[in-house]
Amino acid sequence: MCLCYDQPSVPYMRDQVSKTTIEYCLKESGTIAPTTNIISMEITNIGAGEGLLSEICRVKPQYYSSVVASGKSLGPECMIVKCTPTQFNTRFVGRLFRLFQTEVAFYRHNVPLECGMSSAECYFASYDKRHARCCLIMEDLAPDKPPSQIDGASLPQAVAVARQLAHLHYTYRNKVRSSGAGKWVSLWDDPSFPLFGIASSELKKNMPNFRSAIKAHYGIDTEKYKRSTEVLDFLREHLYHFMADPVPVESGGTVNTTLMHGDARIENFFFQPFVTIDFQLARESVGEFDLAYFIATSLPSELAREYECAVVNVYYQTMVDLGVNDGLEPGAKGYYSLVDCFCNTQQYVNAYLMNMAISTKGVSTLVDLEKPDRINGHTKCR
What mean pLDDT is reported for the chain? Predict the structure, then answer.
């Protein structure tokens, strides 16, 4: 793999993808030999929406080399090329939140290998710092496809995701800065990275209006109003992680942070075999936020009611098996308890669900889709 800056031969934009530029990149990274050439290449647009703020195409090159024995593979048969979007607004967002440089750095620093994650093989990764453009050439996972976001995850899939996230979070638990990842990933307390601040401020701003909104939507003498206000009261009482701005352990504080995936929804996981993709939103945060985001976005309500606690327990037990508490007695400083895991996950699930309902004015989303039952279920888990 190669990290390059401002190379004119790199296809940072979709219209720059050609047999010449792909050949250049594969030779730069050592994926193909200097004596190998691409004589033709089929290019197929995959379409918008397949990647976060990216344009993606599939390339199928035909190789030729006069010095390689017949029948020997000269290079990857099919690859995915992930380029910078052409629209100004999406490129601006990508630059503001450092999405492009983060994903390139994630592969460049071999994070999947470091923590035992299964990810698509990356053949080339380049970031043009001057123009905030990126190019990733990766393994094509077809014909496998991720599950539908609408259908959500099955229980075995949820268990597999929980274990995978635990491997990432354990490796970088309270080590984001000391490991060197802090040089390229956005930090928890970085004032120039506004994502967490935006989410927190939206929650604070909208929560006072929620009670009147559900009153207007359902009327005060209804069961749904009662259930929703119970959820609101629970959040106000327990949501200290979102309402405060705690300091990470590595900076002398008390919050255990790690390197998180940042967009751990079901469409970013393949299962035949298990592979994780899309690391544009990787950053330092509380590990349980990844798990909570997956639960809130990808675990269907019928599964969540019965198995949500079990999924959280799988995550926790994997962390313990990896050694998160090695050398620590229960109750000691830094000891990671099951209660800690459940409470943190619970609060972030609640925060996400409530924030989505408030910010989109989707009061019925919170109530009609039985989200309060899931939040109440968290209380029972604890």
Answer: 84
